[in-house]
Each structure stands twice: as C-alpha cells, then as structure tokens.
Amino acid sequence: MLKKNSSELNISLPISKSIANRILLLQAIHGDPLMRVSSDMPDDVLVLHDALEQLQTFKQGAAQNSKQAPLVLNLKNCGTALRFLQVHIAKCYPGAPITLTGDPRLMERDGKPTTQTTSALILHGEPIPVAENESPYITMSRRMVSMYQPCMADDIEPCWSSAAFWYEYVAIHGGELLLEGLQPDSLQGDRIVADLYATHFGVQTEFIEDGAVIRSVSPKDGLYSVSEAVCQPKAVSIDFFNCPDLYPAIALTCERLGITLLATGTDRLRHKESDRIEAVRLHEVRNDHRMAMALLAADFPVAESEQTCIAKSYPQFPEIYRRITTVERRSNDGQTTVKANVSTLSVTHITPIRGVNDDNLGKKHALSKLIHAATTEYIWLHDDDVILPPVCQPEGRSVFCQPKAVCQHSGLVILPLKMESESDEPSLLEKLQIAEYAAIQELTMRTAKRGHAVMCSGANLIVRREAWLACEPDLHPEIPSGDDMFLLEAMKKRGYKISVIDEPDFTAVVRPQTTWRAFFRQRMRWAGKAPKYTDPDILRCGALIVAANLLQLLCPLILLIKFPIEYSLIRRRQMREHKIINYQLSIINFSIALLLELLYPFYILLSLLGGLFRQKKW
User: Fold this and answer.
1) Is 7 exposed, middle or buried (0-12, 13-18, 19+ CB in 10 A)?
2) What are the residues whose beta carbons fall under 8 Å from the beta carbon of 164, sequence distance 6 or more?
3) pLDDT in tens, 42-62
4) How many CB atoms lie within 10 A of CB 519?
5) What is the enclosing helix (H) or strand (E) of 281?
6) Would the N or C end of the chain have less CB density within 10 A of its end CB?
7) 533: helix, coil or strand?
8) What is the pTM (predicted TM-score) of this model?
9) pLDDT digit string, tens, across residues 190-214
10) Cα–Cα–Cα angle for 233, 239, 241, nearest 5°?
11) CB-based contact 457:507 (threshold 8 Å)
C-alpha cells in the first residue's frame, strides 16, 4: 500500500450515515451518551440525533411528571429515522404520546417493513433469522451489534454511497481523484461501487494510506469495441437489489457514455426520497439528494435552490464540485478553449460564411477548408444565420453542462435547435414553420437518444475532427446540400458513436423563412438529397413519413391516428423550450398544429417533386 498520493484533487467525504445512525440507535438502546455531532454532518444523522435527544428529555420529564405533554418529532425526509424510531418507540416508549411526522414525501412512503425496520429490530436484540440473500444493510446491523462499543464520530468510516458520485464523475470526465479516508475493508454494502466501475466503466481504484485513488483508464477488450477514433460501449447488466442507492450515479454514467443499462432489482427505487427511476429518466432532482448529486456529476444543470437537499447526506458536495469544475473560457481568432474538470476540451467554432470562406464554391467547400485548417480535436459547427447557444456567448450564463462529458467517446454530437420569429406577431407561415420545427426537433432528439439517429442539422453540431476527415469522402460534394445528413450517415456507417446534448445552454436559435417562395426553395433543397440516402434508419423514417402523408390524401380518416402523435411531439418540444425561455408558448396552439397537419401532405408532395427537378446549384 502506497503512503502518499500525488494528486492535488483530494476529495473529502462525509461519514457513513448508515453506520452513524446505527451507532446512535445503539447508544440510545444501551443508555450511553450520544456521540457529538456537528453542522457539517449529513442532515439524516442530525435528524436522528436530535430526535433521540428529545426522546431522552421526554423520558426524564415523564419520570418526574405523570402528565407529560405529547411529543412531536419532525423527521424531515429521513426514512432511516422514521423506520428506526418506529421500532425504538414501540420497544422503549410503549403507549407514550409520541407522534412522528415529516415532509410530505416521507409521509407518502410505503408503510411496509423495510430493511431499515429489520435493522432496527436486530439492533434491539431481536433474533431475526439470516436470510439467504440478505441485504448488506441488515448484515451491517448484525456486525455492529456484535462489535458495539461507544465511539465518536471521528471513528466512523467515510461514506461509500457518497463516493459513488465521484466514481460517476471520473468515468464521464476522465482524470484522477483521491477520495480521502476510504479503505478496502468496510461495513458498507455500497463498497461494491469500486468493483462495478472497474468492471463496466474503466475506473480503477488504488488504496493508499490516505484513501482511495480512483482514475479513468483506457477501455479494455471486451468492455468496448475499440477503433482508432472512437469507442463504442456495450450494454451492461447490473442488479441493484442490494445497492439501490447506486442507481442514480450508474444510470446517468451509462447515459452520458452511451451505454445501455439493463437494470434489475429496482422495485424499491420508486419509494425512495423520490421515484428515482422516473427522476433519472426526466433528469429531475425532485428534492432528492442522490438525484441532485448524480445530475451534477453527469453535468446536467441543477439550480442552486435545488442543491439544498444534498445536505441530507453530503453537505460539502456542491462546494467541492464547483471547486473542481471551474470553467475558463478564452477566445482568439474564432477558437475557444473550455477548461473544465481534470481535462480540457479544446474546440474550434466554425461558421462557413458565403463569399468569405467558401470561395464561391458552396458550404461544403468552406467546411472542408475550415476543418482541414483547424488544429483542435473537436469542431463546433454553426450556420451563419443562427443565434449561437448561450455557452458560446461572451455574456453567457455559468456553464453547468460541459460537452467533454459527451464528446469523450463520440464522433458526432447532435445539439438542440429551436425556431423563433423576429416578430412579436409571427405570420401564419412562420407559425406553421415553428410548429413543424418543434416536431422535427423532438423526433431528432428522441431517435438519437435511442441509438437510431435519423436527422441532425449543421446549424449546431459538435464533430470530432478526425472522424469528420475519415467521413469526408462520403459527403457528396456534387450535391450542394446535405453536409449534415450525409455526415450523420457516414458516421453511422463507420461505427462512430452518435451522442446528444439536449440542454438549454447548448440550444441555438434559427429563424423561419418569411416568404412562401423562400420556404419551398429551402424545403426542395432538403428533399433533393433524399435519393442519395442509404442509412436504413433514415430510409425507414423517410418512407414512413411519406407513406403516412400520402395515405392521408387517400384516406383523410388516418388523421385521427396521425395528428395526436405529431401534436404530442410538438407539445413535448414546446414545453422543453418553454423551460429554456418564456417565449411564444401560446403561438403553437391546437388550431395551428391542426392546420399544419391538414396542409402537410400537399407540402410533402410539392417538396419531393420540386426537389427532384431543382437546379443543382448552391
């Protein structure tokens, strides 16, 4: 075992609240003084400590006064305190006028016995038989009963459950961290996090005198299918029955790395501080400390007001996270360097401008010229008529979501777009385009997130330079449009990973066409490249859209099936955009969407026919 760590990124961890709370209950059972606590400890420990102190005072008062006033204990959102005290009061204060209350979520939680209930009974000396597949928390309780002796908080080992979020962080961002005080021998079942991240996510753990050094290593054969430019992760299967608290960190690690998670043993997750399965799916905190930390570690935006719940288990986490994710942005001649975490994302922003860098040969020539001249690993592509995302603006707000997390294993990253009119009172044409674009964006993001990308836009993309150069022969320079779609096809054909960042800070704004002539010219240009598509996902999606709209012309009743599907896409994207900026939410109402649906078959037909016979010029 090494004696000293060379890393400057040392991470302090909270004490294990599972161990601390069991010690507190054992001290109360044995009549020993409760260990001292401090404000920097997990809230769950402070809540149980305060409740046990109040019970001791209540007991002393009852001994002196037979008319002792009722006692109400507010347990906030601490499930452990609730289960432990339900047993403790029944055992030690039978019939006493004591009421347990707490936050609404605590009162909603399932009243059935849990592993915490069983642990409390064991701590009280009940002879509970050993089950075949016993929870690590129950095993911990048995061991602590057998080895109990009064102790202080300083004697309690650090929390492995909290360490999981730093494993998540290193798996996503790379680099190395020292988790102070962690040692291989532990009472905690979540010690398994080190083994899971070593097996599935390439994060190794080395124990030294000061704690555990965790570092990201190169993918191993069998974990990834490795090519020269990009890694394609595989699916992983994990049973969370004995480690439910690890689910948020592991699920979001998989999402960020593009790994399919086959999770079992997740039934209890719906009854935690939040419904964690749903919270992970929607990227929502829901006043859940583990969700807030998992989202932060995976670089999802979490408002400061939503971070307060983290004090439940790891009060220092937000401050430490901010310290090691300091962002530095420098700009020089169109090149921006984003320094974050323990590694640096160096990205060149490229905006082909007609007549300036296309030599009058079109956008594809300009792209090729600019990308060949770039020296950074990643290229961020923009159209010259878009409003850049907030992270690209000099006055942009703080960056909570770093592209490094997604770019690490990706050849292409699809970024979000939304359409807004420059006018406060958009025309009917503009409203129809805004509705159509919302549906297109929702379909784009959904299919890409599911590993079957069918669309992207060169108005807002991040591409690995090496991957673009490899795909360049397949970009059809003879066709003036399609630099983005042919790039997507080529990336998929060569096995590069396609990722998504669907976050507010990365959303660019595009403008609708203001005349019908300009609108149809643009759509015909888009349709004109369709005969060159070869990707099965793109072909299937295109064929389904064309068939559905032609069928609508022949059988208008198909509208009853088609419209609800497409309207839901519009509304879902619209609601997401509404969270980004409070703008034009009322523009795309039911009547506008219905009108678009009625006109769409004719528009599709005209665009296809026009695209086949349009001039082959940029």
Assistant:
1) middle
2) 190, 193, 245, 246, 249, 250
3) 999 999 999 999 999 998 887
4) 18
5) helix 276-282
6) N
7) coil
8) 0.59
9) 999 999 999 999 999 999 999 999 9
10) 150
11) no
